[in-house]
Amino acid sequence: MFPAERPRRLRRTPALRRLVAETTLSPGDLVAPLFVAEGLSEPRPILSLPGHFQHTLESLRDEVREQQRCGVGGVILFGVPEQKDELGSAAWDPRGISQLALSMLRDEFGDEIVLMADLCLDEYTSHGHCGALGADGSVDNDATIELYARVALAQARAGAAVVAPSGMMDGQVGAIRSALDAEGFFDTVILAYSAKYASALYGPFRDAVGVEIENGGDRRGYQQDPRNRREALREARADLEQGADMIMVKPAMTYLDVLSDLHRELDAPLCAYHVSGEYAMVKAAGANGWIDATEVAIEQLTAIRRAGAQFVLTYFAREIAEELGR
Ligand code: PBG
Predict the structure, then answer these.
(1) For the chain, how many structural domains are there in total?
(2) Mean pLDDT across the stretch 211-223?
């Protein structure tokens, strides 16, 4: 008997495989996270994120030019200030490092590449939490979202096309949308980190921005519990009701089920953040010769697209965009 079904027929040649591929991965689907630090005279390598740097304004501009040359869809900026304080006031200072970087990039690139700003306070607070602390030492939700509104305005004024609140405070999107609208920033896009999990995969990022949470603390009091799947849908729906334009799942590989749920249930543009620990693991194994890092990166980014992400925030952006363009 011959088998009736022969799926292998369509796998015979590269041309056939390409024709029937359900998922694509192109440079424009990738967004590069970039770091800019205050008070540096030259870019400083981030050891746990090989190939990445804390940039000076100048090296940031060169890096964005390279990203653009490779066809990368956007960049998301993180600022590293020299001085931190209780509230994280450098985050909304018009002369703060992220605002200086945003306006420089806006002048240089205009709308040719999508300019995003991560909107949070942890890089700016002396205690390392994502907001203002209340009397009991936990993050005060409602005081924090007022501060987020200030940061959003500072970023919009400096030229961010997209602000991306990543602090997981309740009501943050609504507070930011009203503040932006009240000042006429109707076109400023909100990308909500809707389902951001309290993950152990953020380690290298915290090195990159010099954040250490006070007293060995963690973010489990505000970020989502990795054991929860359905809760992500509630979070994302709430963000959309409050005015989010796009939503995100973070990290990526360990939450593909969540990504797939949001893709099926909601119709807003959806992305995922392939985070620092995910990048570092692939790089480290690759450096040891244990895996082919480029092939694994492409497989992972494709899986994230297949699960439902329209675009992916990834430290692989430039490298893989170059590879795809070959
Ligand atoms: C918070 C923020 C974090 C990341 C992006 N925004 C860290 C955290 O929640 O501790 C992590 C990104 C990564 O690991 O690549 N401002």
Answers:
(1) 1
(2) 92
Distances (CA, A) of 109 to 74, 99, 156, 252, 255: 11, 15, 16, 29, 34
CATH of the domain at 39: 3.20.20.70
CA distances from 233 to 2, 164, 249, 255 (A): 46, 18, 10, 13
Q: Structural domain of residue 180, as residue ranges?
A: 23-324
Distance between CA 6 and CA 225 in Å, rounded? 43
Look at residues 249, 257, 261, 264 and name the one whose alpha carbon lies nearest to residue 311: 249
Q: How far is the CA of 205 from the centre of ligand 1 (A)?
A: 6
Q: What is the pLDDT of residue 255?
A: 98
* Residue the block writes with tokens 């603390």: 217
Q: Are 266 and 240 in contact, with CB atoms under 8 Å apart?
A: yes
Distances in Å between the Cα of 282 and the Cα atoms of 49, 71, 207 are 11, 23, 18
In a domain, 10, yes or no: no
Is the entire prediction scored with pTM above 0.90? Answer: yes
Instruction: In whole angstroms, give the CA distance from residue 139 to residue 128.
Output: 11
pLDDT over 70, % of the chain: 100
- Cβ of 276 below 6 Å from ligand 1: yes
> Per DSSP, what are the bridge partners of residue 305?
none
Whether residue 253 lies inside any domain: the answer is: yes
What distance in angstroms lies between residue 124's CA and the mean position of ligand 1's atoms?
13
**Residue 291 DSSP class:** S
Active site residue 196: yes
Q: Which numbered atom of ligand 1 lies nearest the CA of 277?
A: 14
